[in-house]
Write the structure tokens for this entry.
Amino acid sequence: RVQLKYFGGHTGRWSGAGFFNVQNLPRYEMFCLLDENKKPIKGTGFDLRRALVGPFYVTDYMQVEARALLAQVRDEATLEKIRAGMSVYEAHARATMGWDGGDLKEAGKKSPEHDRTYRLAKARVLGAGYGCGKAKFGVVARVMAGLELTPAQAEEAINEYRAANPKIVKYWRQCQNMLEKAADARKELMILRLPSGRPMYYWNVRKRTVKVIRKTDEGDKLVERVEIFSQTAKGDPSSYRRIYGPLIVENATSGTSRDVLRDGWVALHEAGYDVAFTAHDEYVVELKPGQTGEDVDKLLLETGNNSWAAFIPLGLDGHLVDFYTK
């Protein structure tokens, strides 16, 4: 057995604990033998994921946070493409990057240039929606899309994304204004109400003057800046941290996606399915005789489409496996 913390994070997301964390299992072999260059020798180690033996039906809400963000700002032009069956990445590339060819992902398999376009669209969708700057976006592009960008390319991508997504930028500003008002009023409690109706709490919202290092042409300089802080757990000083508009947007989007997962899990349980565990936005289901993966996906989509989450164009990607894999 493993530990799973219900509501382990501020947004309500599950979190793992114990000997190993099912929310973030390693994708590589552990404890491998090493060759003469001290490089791991493939096939000599222990694959933890293969130790979780099924058969399982693993199904994942595709790009649910990206879809939830677009739905929250009512970007109908992009949402219409997604409802028609297009991936979020391709819809973004068509709406904001000038892509007008066929299936972008398939085109990327045949052309390095199109593959780069697909990867850049993926990085922009996953990383640029929450106000990150060029330095952080460079890291996001490398980790999430395997794309190496120069600082100038990262800055260009961020500027293009913001210019092409005024509704998302407006949402950042609205949340920042809400924070500013709460801080000026020295609110003991600021409540953010999610689309599901669930409240998200921010305690003791305050402005502070902090010293930060700013890079200039003359070198690094120590300057003072006013920032907003709050506690995410009442009475817990260790939870006191900086908060700003795009981070509120990220919290709202993550919390909304978590509530979609919660409702689906309850529906599966009530229908007699055994969910072994969940990892982020996916369910790992142990099917009983007579149960099928198609029925799992159908139930999950019906649950979302007939609830408060109907405004989000949900999609699922499921497959049968003999052991847990992603």
Notes: The longest strand covers residues 199-216. The chain is about 40% helix and 20% strand. The two ends are 20 Å apart (CA to CA). The CA atoms of residues 123 and 144 lie 6 Å apart.
